[in-house]
Design a protein that fits this description.
Arc Repressor Mutant, subunit A, about 15% strand, single chain, two-stranded antiparallel sheet, alpha+beta, Beta-Lactamase, 8 strands, 10 helices
């Protein structure tokens, strides 16, 4: 029975040493079991230091504010980078990575980007009758933050929180085009191009570079059966008040119904309008 399984599992957990001074006979109380993983607690305390007002932090500040020795803080930060929860900036500081969002989708709903984008994206989905997505960059992948799905689109099983290869998605290509060459080479490896099944998938950074140059110039990207057979999409960037690209939106369609020309003629204009509206809501222009 489930209760019996839990009881056996709990009985196998280590029991903290008993505090003999806390005996009921001496007027104290019986000791309580505590299960505390200090290394995990330190990592969570470091993540909790970041806020809207403090989006990046030096390692020395992390150590000072948490009371963690500098070598320990370095190991914790390195682990969080490896696991995708922190990113290290060129100046050595750290900032939260988009994977932090996957810790809880309820928290995700409170983000300004998601909250402000919701209305324009719903109007875009209603106007086009197609699937609309909003995503941001997480390592070499696109993390999907909003998905408004048209049931006719059966070629991709994507949900909020899904992470897909940036090199083969229209959202991903828009976001990669916003990176400088050093960031691009740091994020993308041969593994970034592995396992993609689309018939038109790009297979290397050398193949991708000309496409990114074109995307930077025109301000939008097309995915033409690169992610999967039968799926096309067009994406455009969302910018914040500083002008930086913080996310991208796409409209995804069945390839059989939308040749590339129709995709661009019919869906690109309302897409660009929605992205401009979200940019304005974020303080951009």
């Amino acid at each position: 029975m489930p209760g019996q399984t839990y009881a056996r599992a709990e009985s196998e957990l280590p029991v903290p040493p008993r505090d003999e001074t806390a005996s009921p006979l001496a007027g104290g109380s019986a000791p309580k079991r505590t299960y505390h993983v200090e290394a995990l607690a330190k990592g969570l305390r470091i993540l909790a230091l970041f806020s809207e007002q403090r989006s990046s932090m030096k390692l020395t500040d992390m150590a000072a504010e948490t009371g963690v020795p500098l070598p320990t803080a370095f190991r914790i930060a390195a682990t969080l980078v490896t696991e995708g929860f922190l990113e290290q900036l060129p100046d050595g500081a750290y900032r939260p990575a988009p994977k932090v969002l996957t810790l809880g989708f309820s928290a995700l709903r409170g983000l300004d980007l998601v909250e402000l984008a919701d209305g324009p994206l719903r109007r875009l989905a209603a106007t086009t009758g197609q699937t609309v997505n909003l995503g941001t960059l997480s390592d070499d992948r696109v993390l999907y933050l909003i998905r408004l799905r048209n049931n006719d689109l059966v070629t991709a099983n994507i949900q909020v929180g899904s992470r897909l290869p940036a090199v083969s998605t229209s959202i991903g290509k828009v976001l990669l085009a916003a990176l400088d060459e050093a960031e691009l080479e740091q994020r993308l490896t041969p593994a970034s191009f592995a396992g993609i099944t689309g018939p038109n998938a790009l297979r290397s950074l050398a193949e991708l570079r000309p496409a990114l140059t074109e995307i930077r110039g025109q301000g939008w990207a097309v995915q033409n059966e690169e992610l999967a057979y039968g799926l096309r999409s067009v994406a455009a960037p969302v910018r914040d008040a500083s002008g930086a690209v913080v996310a991208a939106v796409n409209v995804a369609v069945p390839a059989m119904e939308f040749p590339v020309a129709r995709l661009l003629d019919d869906l690109r204009p309302p897409l660009l309008g929605a992205c401009q509206e979200i940019t304005r809501l974020l303080g951009g222009s």
